[in-house]
Amino acid sequence: MANLNVEIGNLKLKNPVMTASGTFGYGEEFADFIDLSRLGGILVKGTTLHHREGNPYPRMAETPAGMLNAVGLQNKGVNYFAETIYPRICTIDTNIIVNVSGSTIEDYIATAEKIAQLEQIPAIELNISCPNVKEGGMAFGTSCKSASTVVKAVRKVYPKTLIVKLSPNVTDIAEIAKAVEAEGADSVSLINTLLGMAINVKTRRPMLSTVTGGLSGACVKPVALRMVWQTCKAVRIPVIGLGGIMNAMDAIEFLLAGATAIQIGTANFIDPQITIKVIDGINAYLEEQGCDDIKDIIGGLIC
To answer: Average pLDDT over the chain, rounded to whole?
Structure first.
């Protein structure tokens, strides 16, 4: 068995396979399907300072080789998470990472401060890229200036590993990555969903209540892979790749492109055991390639 250990800042992962926020609940929902302790990490659903109802229904639609969602960060707020959810999941033997979002910089700061007090949460993923909220979210992640501002503010109050989740809905994602790296981000994760839409031709109405939503699934992988490759060449901090990873070979492509770790999202809805299958598939690939360590293939693209 090859060594699959990787590091994201001070965060040590037993393997590079993590779950993407918003697709895996709080982890406990999948406990009947897989051994959660085998995962490199669990990114829990987006958490905000205050309770959010999310967007009106319908807020999900199937598309060719993917799906659109406009859930809108529905959650009960950081205090509920700390008091109710955290005690239930803090003993899971893997890295529990909280995806933090907000409508204002002050929201991000306050939420990060509260999460920092939770001993068994070693990292946060700062979501500056959600396309499904009217305020905050993607607005912070579409320019170097705004991304730098929010990361700088959170870095001052958050002492643990800080991952910043980037939006693909920009001209040059590598420039955004360099901007947040300069302000103290320990890692960047990309991509969040691509902005898309779908129309019901019979009713002539949008498939989503918000008209547009976030596109994910196999259809976005070529775009995600390209952006991860570009970003890995632009920054020195670890890059976490996600977007359309449906199997082990997809994950290995991201690792070869330079990603230190990966996240699996939409595939969890199709196969709740996909994360374990990807871990096993990476092991099998390394054995086939005669590699003893996952680091032997990270950034191993030949071009």
So the answer is: 95
**Topology given in CATH for the domain delimited by 6-52+70-195+216-296:** TIM Barrel (3.20.20)
What pLDDT is attached to residue 22?
93
Of 90, 130, 232, 303, which one is the catalytic site residue? Answer: 130
pLDDT digits (tens, 9 = 90+) for 12-22: 999 999 999 99
70 is in an annotated binding site: yes
Instruction: Tell me whether residue 193 is annotated as binding.
Output: yes
Active site residue 130: yes
| 95 annotated as a binding-site residue | no
* Chain segment 242-251, per-residue pLDDT in tens: 999 999 999 9
Average pLDDT over residues 213-232: 98
Is 21 marked within a binding site? yes
Three-state DSSP string of the chain: CCECCEEECCEEECCCEEECCCCCCCCHHHCCCCCHHHCCEEEEEEECCCCECCCCCCCEEEECCEEEECCCCCECCHHHHHHHHHHHHCCCCCEEEEEECCCCHHHHHHHHHHHHCCCCCCEEEEECCCCCCCCCHHHHCCCHHHHHHHHHHHHHHCCCEEEEECCCCCCCHHHHHHHHHHCCCCEEEECCCEEEECEECCCCEECCCCCEEEEECHHHHHHHHHHHHHHHHHCCCCEEEECCCCCHHHHHHHHHCCCCEEEECCHHHHCCCHHHHHHHHHHHHHHHHCCCEHHHCCCCCCC
